[in-house]
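Hello,

I think I submitted the adenosine-5'-triphosphate job twice by accident. Can you confirm which output corresponds to this input? Input:
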Amino acid sequence: MTPLLAAENLVKSFSVSTGWRNTKRFYAVDNVSLHVERGRTLAIVGESGCGKSTVGSMLLRLQDPDSGRILLDGAGVMTLDRDGLRRFRRRVQVVFQDPFASLDPRERIRDVLMRPMLLHQLCDKAEAPKRAAALMEAVGLSASQLDRFPHQFSGGQRQRIAIARALSVQPDVIICDEPVSALDVSVQAQVVNLLQDLQRDTGVALIFISHDLSVVRHLAHEVAVMYSGRVVEQGETKPLFERPSHPYTQALLAAAPTIEAPKRAPTLLSGEPPDPTDRTPGCRFAARCAYRTEQCLQEEPALMKIEGEHLAACFLAKTLPPVSNAVDVLSETPAAARIAAYRRARDGQTILPGEMQK
Ligand SMILES: Nc1ncnc2c1ncn2[C@@H]1O[C@H](COP(=O)(O)OP(=O)(O)OP(=O)(O)O)[C@@H](O)[C@H]1O
Ligand SMILES: [Mg+2]
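Support: Only one job matched these inputs. Its output is below.
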């Protein structure tokens, strides 16, 4: 089956100054391939600086890769003409982390929502206000708030507006770059649930860039784990969380906070990611890896099959000791508990006092 949106071997480097007249290439994204299907959610996870947003912005055609391809419904989108790019922009939308920065403070919400649909000629001027009102209801806000300005909403409400704006053009994919990270913890679960409900209702695909593994586990169908510009593990969420097979994924999961230890120290992840200008051979994770062998220092491991579609870029992936409690750890995290509580509350079930505030 042709994936809805796919990246093939994307490379993006930047030139960084290393002194007087000296520059080096800094590989922010190095040979990344991934894809998402209709109605599905692909999460991209990894430490700060590993290249997640750079991948997102290339998928949005906000910046061009040095090499590699982006395909929408199997058709290349690197050489689109103006009209083609306009159609692409309707089909691939974005929700950024900061709902304050992404909305024009001088624009009423009515115009925020109506402008894209008129621009893309999805309806006429008479029809647009009705659609804007329906979008407000769809994201849990009220049509009576359409004449307000962004500053008259809370952070969570603004993020709902950003989601409504993305939906206003009936996209096929929404790229969500840390969409809940700037929000209060109690609001995060509501917005995650909203995205999930909207996906169920509209079939929109989501690419969900996030640090929060418990949210990812809850929301994503597939996960790509990035490390230093590369995908080091990918697969369906359940097998990947049940059997994390790259030492980096294992460390990331072990470092995830729990209720008992909300800020658990990332003990397995000591040390820094490698210098991305350093192109010496070998596995990028080797310097921080407890299991490294001579081979890891000499050769870069490609993604290898663990089982089915589950892949990991580690020579030792199949022989590493299993991390048995990764799923248990994450199912108990505060965010996961809140999401479950909101879901039960929405479905009319009783929730325990304090459950939402965890
Ligand atoms: N325009 C640019 N010029 C130079 N370096 C850049 C540019 N854009 C990104 N980078 C660098 O590329 C690397 C990857 O950045 P990116 O924003 O994709 O990381 P990220 O995984 O999204 O991180 P975070 O979780 O902090 O958002 C970073 O080291 C960043 O400093
Ligand atoms: Mg980012």
